[in-house]
Amino acid sequence: MSELPQDLYGQIDPPQRLLMGPGPVNAHPRVLRAMSADLLGQFDPEMTDYMNQVMALYRPVFGTANHWTMLVDGTARAGIEAALVSLIQSGEMALVVNFGRFGLLLQEILTRIGARYETIDAPWGEVVPMEAIAEAARRLQPRLICTVHGDTSTTMAQPLNGIGAIAREVGALVYVDATATIGGMEIASDRWGVDVVTGGLQKCLGGPSGSSPITLSDAAAALILGRRHVEKGIARDDIEDGHGAMIGSNYFDLAMVMDYWSPKRLNHHTEATTMLYGARECARIALGEGLAARFARHAAAGRAMTAGLRAMGLTVFGDDAHRMTNVTGVWIPQGVDGERIRLMMREAFEIEIGTAFGPLQGRIWRLGAMGYNAMKHKVLITLSALEACLKAEGFRPPLGEAVPAAMAAWEMQA
Amino acid sequence: MSELPQDLYGQIDPPQRLLMGPGPVNAHPRVLRAMSADLLGQFDPEMTDYMNQVMALYRPVFGTANHWTMLVDGTARAGIEAALVSLIQSGEMALVVNFGRFGLLLQEILTRIGARYETIDAPWGEVVPMEAIAEAARRLQPRLICTVHGDTSTTMAQPLNGIGAIAREVGALVYVDATATIGGMEIASDRWGVDVVTGGLQKCLGGPSGSSPITLSDAAAALILGRRHVEKGIARDDIEDGHGAMIGSNYFDLAMVMDYWSPKRLNHHTEATTMLYGARECARIALGEGLAARFARHAAAGRAMTAGLRAMGLTVFGDDAHRMTNVTGVWIPQGVDGERIRLMMREAFEIEIGTAFGPLQGRIWRLGAMGYNAMKHKVLITLSALEACLKAEGFRPPLGEAVPAAMAAWEMQA
Lengths: 414, 414
What we know:
The structure is a homodimer of 414-residue chains. With 414 residues, chain A is an alpha/beta fold. Chain A has 2 domains: 29-286, 3-Layer(aba) Sandwich (Aspartate Aminotransferase, domain 2); 290-411, Aspartate Aminotransferase, domain 1. The first copy, chain A, is 40% helix and 13% strand. The first copy, chain A, has helices at residues 29-34, 45-62, 76-87, 101-113, 130-140, 163-170, 189-192, 218-225, 254-261, 273-289, 291-311, 338-349, 376-392, 402-411; strands at 18-19, 68-72, 93-98, 116-121, 144-148, 150-151, 156-157, 173-177, 196-198, 212-216, 327-331, 351-352, 364-368. In chain A, helix 4 links the parallel strand 3 and strand 4. The first copy, chain A, is globular, with a radius of gyration of 22 Å.
């Protein structure tokens, strides 16, 4: 312990920073307060009631009547892996709709599972046409079609209307990673006809990272329960194993997670109670606001951010028709050092804006306005600060134009 | 949304229940307060400072100088799977020291990885002699020796002094699941000579489930970095892939988790900020109290609980010489319905005590006194309540004997 300071680094005391990047964003204070409630035993009736409430609260958030709607205990990426490892097995074929970094992540996880896959790609900044997905699905006859809904790496949102019909035609299921859009753009699981959708709290739901809401269609649940292999230590006569291949992960075995979230309450992990309290409050806030109002608020914030950036003389990245409402990419102007601007934004204004990945690293910034931060004043503050920083770094933006343009765009009908 | 109540189930408001089972237990209020701090961007300098502080704070908690000491974002079981999937691969041989349900869990995870294993077993209620481990290791020549430290299913703590020397003799690494003992009994990673140890917050560290501290020896880190395969979406010229087999999980790929916790800050998951704040405060509380004082407090609580139960005429479960200090098993007396007692404890006294698993289900209760609940008054309250419930259910305990016996045992030198 000799290297530790006497005060053990002191009480937690982060700066009050406005997080206007691609996420995480500032959590809604109600979420953080809910997380300070004392714990319960994992099988106490009040705890299992809270679990059932979470199931009910997340169904409308996912736009579904699916019974199996619950949480995976881990970050959004945990939900993605739980979905994939439970849905597909070594040697089976998947089709990946790929238009950004998180499409690459889907491929990466499929590789580790030992699944085969082909991709149908769009250049970064575009989405994949539904006819191209249909054509690839018919040719490939995959077991699973996987796609991201909104990929923050490119700020694009893939249209998903009709994907379920294509999947049913070829006998596939559909998995959707909605981490970056859930709670901010409409997730219409049932209308899209998709089978498994996962999310995270740390973007449009305005909570901390660490819990991944998930919903499963009856078809997905049947497939997964067919792969059920209950642990030896907790096997019971009334729970039968399935005939399918054992799922490659214990922690991400959704059959066991379902048994834990069912009246059987079969012990698996110890539910992350505090994160569940937070996830519950995120959904209560979203439904209390009203989902339609919430989507409109995110759309207004996206319009305002985009209009403000353009009024500053900047070029917004990517295809206008398919932009996510909650995160906006913008080209770093020639001659400007993107990291110096980000540093000044943080040090002078306590505002975080995002850098980028892969082919866009150092070329675009990503500005988010999501969840608790999808508010007019936060968009205006961010634009004002960015204007000042650009000016300080020698770029000559039209001065004083961004704020009125953003205000007008906020009020505009979508 | 038609089925949701208008108040969306209302604010979170759990009963103030005393959790005296095998965990989770009530969180220390300082931990819950720390978790209400606002979020930071995951690469903000204050956030990466907090990550570095967590590394430094958990080294003494693990009894190690290991550089690689960090968090896995998930429950304790996530840490176990991350360790195993990163350390061993399909076809390789492991030796499992098995003396309870969590030894079965290790086998279960190894099976899913495709590893081969043999077990060296003790009956539930005993531990495995070190000579038997040595003999099995010499015969089997495993790549990995896996053991639980304290298995709450049997309340036994496996002695681990000497296991590292055995492993080095046969060229194996050692993995230890210390979920149930970390922060309550000594974890001497370096003195034991073990390579990877994982824990959880929800037992003796007095925090919520959802974050798994982990430490890796240099040898373990070298093995794991030899299996590094960086995701396509974030590959960088300065980070080389290893020649070893790809780790079967992306989320649990400790090579990528290490790159995220290193100055490279290679993006993997989005760190569960609020859980990290909680984990940080758990360690600050443990180190602020002093680890030796904390272990003595848990030992006093265990002595007091055991003495009180015996003074009530009950028979304590398992081998006295290897009992965990923080959880005590006790036989349910003949003619008493264990679940009716647990119900009355909860409904009349708002106290939770634990049931049991597998061969002990319905036969023993498990009473914990860990973390924030390893306190004299909480042990005395629990014993008094249990005495009243046993009397109400027709069992005739010697009345008024448990509390003085527990008080005397609390004061006794270990």
